[in-house]
Amino acid sequence: MGALKQQTVLTGAGLACLRELAPRYVWWKTRDEAMEFPDRVAAQVMNLGTFDDLTAMLEATGEDYLREVLQQAEAGQLDARSWHYWHYRLGLADYGTRAVPPMPVRKTA
Of 41, 48, 68, 77, which sees the most CB atoms within 10 A? Predict the structure, then answer.
């Protein structure tokens, strides 16, 4: 049995921010449907977000939460540019010792 991974708990401010951003970044679902999976909303903003929306989300949710979203991202949630940017921005990679890991891929049976 593997170790349980600690999950960063979103504060009220973090949830409120994602709830506000959800209709712009998960437009094919209602706000409530999108918020059933707040990590997916956050990943969409990380991939497509404007500077203002990214800044607001980062301040409201915190870097630890966004690190978890990035580390648990599914194939196709982030493009290569966003994948690399966020690994460097959140300190999960650097130019010297820690390379950006490969992007997630879909597994087929």
Answer: 41
Place of tokens 């203002």: 52
CB atoms within 10 A of CB 55: 11
Domain coverage including residue 30: 12-89
Residue 5: which residues within 8 A CB-CB, separation 6 or more? none
Query: How many independent structural domains does the chain possess?
Result: 1
Do the Cβ atoms of 34 and 26 come closer than 8 Å?
yes
pLDDT band at 8 (very low <50, low <70, confident <90, very high): confident
Dihedral sign (CA 92, 93, 96, 98): positive
Burial class (CB in 10 A: 0-12, 13-18, 19+), 93: middle
| 84 HSE (CA, 13 A, CB side) | 4
